[in-house]
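ok trying this again, last paste got cut off
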Amino acid sequence: MIMSTHLFHDEQSLLEKTEELGRQAVNLKLIPSFVIHYYADSWEFCIPDGNISNCLTAPEAYLKLKKLVDSAMSTV
């Protein structure tokens, strides 16, 4: 059985890792940009998808960005 290694242990580290993945995705030119809306109790990540910007929760954005970055890194 393979154990997955998580790079975050709480909500704050998930938010920070998601922001880092967003920056990586922009640097790798996988997405043109992303916007983070900071609210008192949460962050919202808006990632362009064609002509539409999808706003996602941190877990949703993390999974989407992780998949993009991992697939780009596996082809390098």
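PB: full thing came through this time. The radius of gyration is 13 Å.
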